[in-house]
Design goal:
Elements: E1 15-19, E2 22-29, H1 37-48, H2 52-64, H3 71-74, E3 77-81, E4 90-94, H4 96-105, H5 112-124, H6 133-138, H7 142-155
Antiparallel strand pairs: 1-2, 3-4
Length: about 160
């Protein structure tokens, strides 16, 4: 355990994870399985803040309404107490490359439209995944297609209000 106490005083309960040989070298982490979808959404937003393409990917994931509730996806999410100057801000990030591989290899179950939304989000988040929009959009309903359009505009710098 580090000498200093946890700098976070919010409602969540992080634990200290470190290298057993160097207890001072570690991070305060959150159990992603215990987070509500709303808590996870705010932590993902905090991590993406200021990076338009990453923000677009996160907002697409949140607005889709499926993935934040999926316990399997959460195994590909890390949630930590921020780093650098943001040591009091809970943040979360998705291991996009691992998620795309899991969908491709069948390790993460998804319907055609759920997989398309996740692949599109991953491609926006800077993961070099090829997404044929023609093929991906063909399997989406009007709501999801609209969300993709909103995400693309957001990634290009056109910040707009996302649906609740």
């Amino acid at each position: 355990m580090p000498d200093q106490s946890c700098p976070y005083d919010g409602p969540l309960h992080p634990i200290w994870e470190c290298d057993p040989e160097d207890p001072e070298d570690g991070l305060w982490v959150f159990d992603v399985a215990e987070l509500t979808a709303e808590e996870l959404a705010e932590m993902l937003r905090a991590h993406a803040r200021g990076l338009y393409a990453e923000e677009a990917a996160v907002e697409l994931l949140i607005a889709h309404r499926h993935w934040l509730h999926d316990p399997e996806l959460r195994t590909y999410v890390d949630a930590v107490l921020g780093y650098g100057t943001d040591r009091r801000v809970p943040m979360a990030s998705v291991a996009w490359s691992a998620v795309v591989e899991a969908i491709r290899d069948g390790g993460l179950y998804a319907s055609t439209s759920e997989a398309a939304m996740l692949r599109i989000a991953a491609s926006l988040a800077s993961y070099p995944v090829e997404v044929g929009l023609r093929h991906a959009l063909a399997g989406l309903d009007a709501r999801d297609s609209g969300l993709v359009g909103l995400a693309i505009a957001h990634a290009a710098g056109e910040r707009q209000e996302w649906p609740a």
